[in-house]
Amino acid sequence: MSDKDEKNGDGLQSVVMTMHILEQVARSPRGVGVTGLANTLGTSKSRVHRHLQTLVQQGYVTQPEDSERYEVGHRLIALGQTVFDSSGLQRAAQDPLLALRDALGHSAVASQFTPDGMLVIETIPGRSPIEIGVRVGSILSFHASAQGKVATAFSSPEFQARVLRNKLELFTPHTITTSSLLIEEFAQIRRQGWATAPNQIALGLDTLACPIFDASGRVCGSVGIVDMVQQFGDRPSDLHIRQTQLAANQISERLGFAGPA
């Protein structure tokens, strides 16, 4: 269909083209460019570009600043979570999250890895009379949240470099924004298997997070416990670490992960 056909034709064709573009972006784990989409869909680059710009504005597709490729956005992932089948991360996390909350009493949270950050997909409130946690649908940064740090640490060196190239926002005076310090921290997280971020995303708040892996062995999310910094101290207890790692392992197994990462 030509650009003229789209302007004069049925709006339904525009919807169909949008869906085709979303499908192609979702099937391209490393992203896809305008030319590739136009060739695959048999249409013009200008038409594809117009659709992509609308999808980017709405958050269904994202384009990294240093790339000409387009990737899945957080809103498309969030939408997919609502229709995910029984093998999906949200469903797989429900029982282990509840068990983690019951074992430790802290709020428990599961997050999905997305190109824009860690998308919170499931939370179980803690037993404290004061509610402490994060909202479902929140996007947590890769450099300042425990969920983002642990996912980045277990990602590829290329992805870590991408995180460090982007703007490292200073959320609090304790947020680490120095690339060399973050590189050292990612290495330490990978060795120990867990991450914390006391006072880094919000003053007084801390999270202990462990990575979740999918059937291919790639990190796809994280599971963690959230509470005030004084509840964890300078270092989480062995019990906290053990129970959080147990929950992460259970979720990973439900997703088909057989190790090692």
From TrEMBL:
Residues 75-257 form the IclR-ED domain. It comes from the Bacteria. The keyword DNA-binding applies. It holds the Pfam family IclR_C. InterPro entries: ArsR-like_HTH, GAF-like_dom_sf, HTH_MetabolicPath_Reg, Tscrpt_reg_IclR_C, Tscrpt_reg_IclR_N, WH-like_DNA-bd_sf, WH_DNA-bd_sf. Gene3D superfamilies: 3.30.450.40, Winged helix-like DNA-binding domain superfamily/Winged helix DNA-binding domain (1.10.10.10). Keywords: DNA-binding, Transcription, Transcription regulation. One of its GO terms (molecular function) is DNA-binding transcription factor activity. Residues 12-74 form the HTH iclR-type domain. SUPFAM superfamilies: GAF domain-like (SSF55781), Winged helix' DNA-binding domain (SSF46785). Coiled coil: none annotated. The keyword Magnesium does not apply. GO terms for biological process: negative regulation of DNA-templated transcription. This is Transcriptional regulator, IclR family.
